[in-house]
């Protein structure tokens, strides 16, 4: 059921997502790519790749990239955009990231951006990422974070779901860390950066946004200062900016040592 909602939502969002200034920005895209330990002999996987913004940014830095996503409209767009940009080492296919089709240890690295908050039981995605990278390989997770306080989080999530019915739950950083550790990964690095995007572009990109605007604006009036994970600021000329927190964590799969004798 939720997967049908995902497919509907991201068929609706595909073109707008692909040209979203924020999704292509240095803070959201280069800030993630620059954090990855890339080498030109590596094979990477972009998990829940959408229109392939991350995969296409990775492609010049590595040997090859695969991108996988549930929404065929996203995969079609990723494929045509890569062709338009003359990228020849990226390929894209439809698939569920909680049950990846690749064998154990096929990739040097796997990355996912802005996807975990759409996935019920996101630890299944993290486990799959850990499974398909080789021992010594890397897993990177970038997503906007949820509030640590339960009531703050409930308020934030309600607004997100009104705007985009495929939203499941933003995770506090500690939950992302716990999932990666339980998947057997070792922490290599992390950074949490505040980011800002145009509120109207964000609201209108979600299929529920335009209709839910009055309700969302009422919720915002209830908490004029927002919460740590979600805050809207309106400047003197009436332009609204949404402030979120972006957490990027980098993990490594332990190197297996075979006992001799
Ligand atoms: C917000 S978009 C992010 C796209 C891309 N990662 C990026 O940051 O540019 C979330 C994507 O997750 C995909 N998605 C959600 N659940 C999925 C699942 N179980 N398997 C594969 N893709 C999924 C959606 O189809 C959508 O394209």
Total strand count, please? Answer: 8
| CATH C-level name | Alpha Beta
Helix-residue proportion: 25-40%
What is the first-to-last residue Cα distance?
A: 52 Å
Strand content: 25-35%
Rg of Cα set: 18 Å
Bound molecules: S-adenosylmethionine
Largest sheet: 8 strands, mixed
Stated plainly, the CATH topology is called Rossmann fold
Q: Determine the number of helices (DSSP H or I, runs of at least 4 residues).
A: 9
Order of helices and strands: HHEHEHEEHEHHEHHEE
Overall 3D shape: globular
Q: What do the pLDDT scores average to?
A: 95
Structural class: alpha/beta
Q: Could you name the CATH homologous superfamily?
A: Vaccinia Virus protein VP39
CATH architecture: 3-Layer(aba) Sandwich
Q: What's the domain count?
A: 1
Instruction: Detail the poorly predicted runs.
Output: none
Describe this structure in words.
The chain is α/β, with parallel strands linked by helices. The protein has one domain: 3-Layer(aba) Sandwich (Rossmann fold). Helix content is 38%, strand content 25%. The protein has 9 helices and 8 strands. The chain has helices at residues 2-19, 26-33, 53-58, 72-84, 123-132, 150-163, 173-182, 199-205, 209-222, and strands at 43-47, 64-69, 90-94, 107-113, 133-144, 186-198, 230-234, 240-252. Strands 1, 2, 3, 4, 5, 6, 7 and 8 form an 8-stranded mixed β-sheet that branches. The termini are far apart. 39% of the residues are buried. Bound molecules: S-adenosylmethionine. The site of S-adenosylmethionine has 20 residues, from helix 1 and helix 3.
